[in-house]
Amino acid sequence: MIDDRPLIYKYLRHDKKFPHVWCPGCGIGTMVGSLIRAIDHIGYTKDEIVMVSGIGCSGRLPVYVDFNTLHTTHGRALTFATGVKLAKPDLKVIVIMGDGDATAIGGNHFIHAARRNIDLTAIIVNNSIYGMTGGQYSPTTPYGDRGTTATYGTVENSFNISQLAVCAGAVYVARGTVYHTRQLDQLIEKALQKKGFSVVEVISQCQTHFGRLNKRGNHIEMLKWQRDHAVSVEKARNLSAAEMADKFETGVLVDREAPTYHEEYAKLRQKAKEAMTPPVGQEEKEESDRREASDRH
Amino acid sequence: MKKPDPRAKLMQGNEACAAGAIAAGCRFFAGYPITPASEIAEQLSVRLPQVDGTFIQMEDEIASMGAIIGASLAGAKSMTATSGPGFSLMQENLGFACIAEVPCVVVNVMRGGPSTGLPTNPSQGDVMQARWGTHGDHPIIVLSASSVLECFTMTVKAFNFSERYRTPVILLLDEVVAHMREKVILPKPSEVEVIDRVKPSVPPEWYLPYEDTSFGVPPMGIFGEGYRYHVTGLTHDIRGFPTLRQDEIEPFLIRLFRKISTHSDDIRLVEHFMTVDAEIVVIAYGCVARSARRAVLEARSEGMKVGMLKLITLWPFPRSYIELLVKAGKTLLIPEMNMGQVSREVKRVSEGMTQVLTLNKIDGTIISPKEILVKMKEKR
To answer: What is the pLDDT of residues A275-286, one digit of tens each?
Structure first.
């Protein structure tokens, strides 16, 4: 067993904002563990990391970690993160979102950040429900499952967040669960090291709302459900659609290379400077020369 | 014959606004296309990359507002520009900039509303939205401009106020001012006063990001410069962490108001035109101030004692200047291209002590000097 205490002392604001707001049995804390271990393993300094979040249970994460932290408005974390990254490309930007945060209110920002290939890592905790507001159904609540606003079961189809990210152009997309923590450590570490828009969808449990409303038992039962329904990408290739019907793939779904927004913009800057007539600063100089000349006449 | 000034340019209000942004040190712009503000984005998409800045066209105005706040936290002076419908979308994140005290500039080139309204016609219908658009009680600085040169100078002012007071500043332009072309001689970069935010000078472990100071504005740590702290839209304590303690909530919110109100002498900008002996004083702003000026000159030539108080700062409302006019017993005439958003405020200041006349026009055209003149004569 790994001793995480040195990491707690190093990376968490352990003397400031604890205890945290999450319910007992929540999966977010497990994800935080994976994230911190990945950051520590890569060796980023705390000053170079900016952790951005939206609103919801996951949105509270940045309070607890000792980085540059930014807790934004609901669904808009990626827009703030885009501004941070483009203004200071040396910073390592990590965005934490929930399923409602990233794909309902923030869905538009999500696909456009992926399309632009902004160099940051988006970690989406998917617990299939709005936890903070009391258990309303979300865009990832499976068809027929219950929420406090879907007492008879939702009649909406659900989003597949990872597939959405793949189609929108993310260069690295992985799905893990909070049950498979060692794998999650690795998936997050790879995502952080990937140049471009990387996404890790973390299947998590909300025993307080989703588990209770859908009679899935406590968090232990829900973690067992993750264990039994996760199929690795490699294995899934050999399974039929019927066999995969109630299962989900885990592992790296996409890992590809593409120039980032910032790299492309650096080229654009070069072009813009070359197009300048007259070049920077010269306009003013010419004017003063002209003035001097006209004064002499 | 007088030689033409070689620095004179024929320029549009929106172009001057973009030039002002560059002169003020703006290095990040995020926006979304909208009439009649698009020229600002177009200009900056050309200029910003030339000065190692960044221009990005976002997916909507919500995202634009988020991006400029993020960029500002990372140290870049940032701005967005929009019009009515986009301004409505920006309101939520505008409140974030207020509570998290993030300097940024929002230009709203006003067009006729409500809703899609009149995209190419002028209006002054957003004065109250600029003041109260985002939810919750909050202070804000709102400036206006009535000429192309003022589009430049007030954009610079907006940046300076936002940096000095760590607050979003809104610049309200009228469509006709933003699209009008007139001769303008812009100041040289060396002549432009540029104010930058104060950064912390204490060791990082002593830094309290939202601590009260004698100036009322705490120094601002920049992401990546060693001052790790928490920025949130939740009501927070002096360390930036969310709080529900009554003894922390109220002092914080009161400081937000105080940092603007105690510096109102610096922020409230007005111009007096022939008001000293005037019996009727026209209070006008934006393009209407141009018509009012002409009306005052014509009325003077007919022997009427009239003057004008031009408002440049709209919020915090320049009530001290209006109080002096009220005390002097002058009749006040407020022509504006809305149903009375500023005149209502003037009436609150006047408290019935002096006559307040209104002239409202909402047909998508500007108020002409003649219309103001007729109103003056009615009074006499």
So the answer is: 987 655 555 555
Last residue of a domain, one of B166, B191, B216: B191
User: Distance (Å) from the C-alpha of residue A179 to the closest C-alpha of chain B?
Assistant: 30
3-state secondary structure of B247: helix
A214 and A291 co-located in one domain: no
Is A73–B92 a contact, with Cβ atoms under 8 angstroms apart?
yes
Residues whose CB falls within 8 Å of the CB of residue B293, separated by 6 or more in sequence, listed in order: B273, B308, B310
Question: Are A117 and A58 part of one and the same domain?
Answer: yes
In chain A, how many domains are there? 2
- Could you give the ipTM of this predicted complex? 0.97
Residue-range definition of the domain harbouring residue B106: 9-191
Closest by Cα among A247, A160, A166, A248 to A199 = A166
Task: Determine the pLDDT at residue A132.
Answer: 95
Mean pLDDT for B13-35 is: 98
Asked if A102 contacts A122 with a C-beta cutoff of 8 angstroms, the reply is yes
Provide the percentage of residues in chain A whose pLDDT is more than 70: 92
Nearest to B336 by CA among B319, B316, B307, B356: B356
Does A284 lie in the same domain as A187?
A: no
**Residues of A with Cβ-Cβ distance to B234 under 8 angstroms:** 71
pTM summary value:
0.96
Name the minimum distance, in Å, from the CA of B245 to any CA of chain A.
14
Residue that has been written with the tokens 């105690």 in this structure:
B262
Is A157 in the same domain as A29? yes
Q: Which residues 213-272 of A have a C-beta within 8 angstroms of B?
A: 265, 268-269, 271-272
What residues in A contact B65, CB-CB < 8 Å? Answer: 79
Place of tokens 């109100």: B261
Residue A71 has its nearest CB partner, among B49, B66, B232, at B232
**A108 with B59: Cβ contact below 8 A:** yes
- Contact of B6 with chain A, judged by CB distance below 8 Å, is answered with yes
Give the pLDDT mean for B306-310.
98
| Mean of pLDDT values over A78-104 | 98
Domain CATH code at residue B75: 3.40.50.970
Q: Which of B6, B59, B241 sits opposite A287 (nearest CB)?
A: B6
CA distances from A241 to A104, A128, A236, A247, A248 (A): 27, 22, 9, 10, 11
According to the model, what pLDDT value does residue A252 have?
98
